[in-house]
Amino acid sequence: MMELVIGGSGSGKSAYAETAICREHCRSLEEDKDAFLYYIADMIPYGAETEKKIAHHREMRAGKGFQTLEWYYGLAEHITAPDAPPLEGASVLLECISNLTANEMYEPKAAKMAAAAEAVIRGVQMLHERCRNLVVVTNDVFRESGSDSEEMVLYKKNLARINRALAEEADRVTEVVSGIPIQIREKGKSLETNKSEYPAGVTLILGGAYQGKRAYAEMIFPGLTWADGEEIPFQEIENAAVIDRFHLLVKRWMLAGKSAEDLTEKILGMNRKIIILCDEIGCGLVPVDAFEREYREAAGRVCVELAEHARRVDRVVCGIGMRMK
After folding, report:
1. Ordered domains of the chain (ranges, CATH)
2. pTM confidence score
3. From CA 4, how far away is CA 138, in angstroms rounded?
4. Across-strand partners of 69?
5. Chain-centre distance of CA 90, in angstroms?
6. Main-chain dihedrals φ then ψ at residue 96, nearest 5 degrees
7. C-alpha distances in Å from residue 99, one per residue of 105, 220, 263, 281
8. Strand, coil or helix: what is 4?
9. pLDDT tens-digit profile of 115-128?
């Protein structure tokens, strides 16, 4: 069994993941009383802030039977090392993929930029092959409006690629919101994501950056001509079948001195079939720049209006689409 757990900072994902792996481990002990329970810790203690977080997690794990493995990068090398702990039949909690990805990208002896995603994916797959139970924790850092540096874009793309690959590998994918686990996929249980007729009116597909919205849309509605929200001329909006990166269209529209409300009215007033893919950008820190704050809020409000009138609304997390309406 492999479960991928995703959530924002302070969402309760760690507590849920510990409960999940301990539950599976207890089941394992019914068949093998000598089965091991491991916690793979990959947060490097750089200073007071990280040391405080590490101490908090140790306190959470205390008395639960975990053996801690401090594997900051190079999972595959640790797993195959001559002195590697016995993983066959074990239950393992890996926390967390966001730290592991950063370590593989930036630590001097790690995989480095280009190979980071492959190194993480390969290591987790090897764990999955050897362990009886594996719970992997990852972070949602994809839903904010602030402009990223080139390094941050690469990091987010790597992390999103890893998350999508692990979600595909996992038997279960769970999102934790304010301590509440929401199961977004379990193998053997189908979601309403099969190919569909192109519905009348607006279809809205939401999700964080790099979550696989376009691949999901192309699976549901194949063969359509795409327009990019960063490039489409305003006069061509009325002819577009699909608009990707709609949040950037909202931004351009506002920079041109037009109101977001006018854009909403324009789209709804067309009264025809159109698919809109939009990044969720309302999370993260509130931007310092006044226009960025206005744009972030406007993009959210436009999506609220479109969702209210849409014939279909879907959300994509880790490449997994969920129909919301």
Report:
1. 2-186 (3.40.50.300), 202-323 (3.40.50.300)
2. 0.87
3. 7
4. 40
5. 26
6. -130, 165
7. 10, 33, 40, 22
8. strand
9. 999 999 999 999 99
